[in-house]
Amino acid sequence: MSEVTEMFSAPLTFNWTLSYRCNFTCDHCYSRDEECPELAFDDLKRIVDVLVEQQVPFINFGGGEPLIRHDLYEIAEYASKAGLNVSMNTNGWLLDEAAAQRLKDVGFKSVGISIDSSDPALHDSFRNMPGSYERALRGLDALHKVGLKSTMSSVISRINYQAFRELLDLARDHGVGQVYLHNFKCSGRGFKNREDLDLTPEEWQAFYLEALAVKHQTDDLKISFDDPVIASLPEYQEKTMVKGSSCGKLSLHLRPNGDITPCGFIPVVVGNILNDDFETIWFDSPVLKAMRNKEATGKCSGCAAFDDCQGGCTARAFATTGDFNQPDPHCWK
Prior knowledge:
By secondary structure, this protein is α/β, with parallel strands linked by helices. It contains 14 helices and 10 strands. The protein has helices at residues 3-7, 41-53, 72-81, 97-105, 120-127, 132-146, 164-173, 189-192, 194-197, 201-216, 278-284, 286-292, 306-309, 314-321, and strands at residues 13-17, 58-62, 85-90, 108-114, 149-155, 178-182, 222-225, 251-254, 259-261, 271-272. Helix 4 packs across helix 6 (132-146). The radius of gyration is 19 Å and the shape is globular.
């Protein structure tokens, strides 16, 4: 049994995709070209019951666009009343004040909105949706007005890596307390558009050094990263619950039909939450075991940073090579 499964009898978070449908066609999206049957409401309740039984504390709705499912409010309320901490990420298009109030009423703890540039035209172009910037800001303001915690998610790419400070200022201007600077994953459309949008390893290193310096000087806004390759930098001092990628260790992903994958960016099904025994999946899946016990290969062999970064982002390595154990292509070492 791995170190992780000795610590946790279940993941801390399930990232739950209720639908791959979306009103946007973003250039970096991992899921826009995915198709999958969607479950009926009674099956969604059965999934919540399984998560409660397994004592999973958090669920985060993503997609696709979660607000496209009109029963999102009902399933969130059912989950919240069952004791789960419920959050979601949205593009903000459908989030007006009435929707924000309803989200608060059914028990959402926080709502994240994706904004990738402080330049309205650049954000709209990246999201392939004219007016999306203004609608996203409207969503942030609506959340602030009703008193529901908001976060902002920004995927770092060639369009914004030199202007991330402006994103932080934008968050401050709209009452946001936490900004997630997400790494570019190279999955789905992100893989197709990688040459245009992704940074070189040296540019990633320079970005993280600058972003970490800003983080250390900032006390009015929480700045968060989700990239394990950053752990190879001495400037990164955070204590994490696990080393390397958290997917398959602290979190799992649910597809719209109930299939479980290690994360949304790794399209490898390890079981179905409604049809298979969850504990067998969690403890015995060969895929999850491989992700929890990665082997140093290629330039990771003999690298002093491997114990901390565990080869970097497993999803990115898998998307570009088909092998969990290959080095993260973003690695600058």
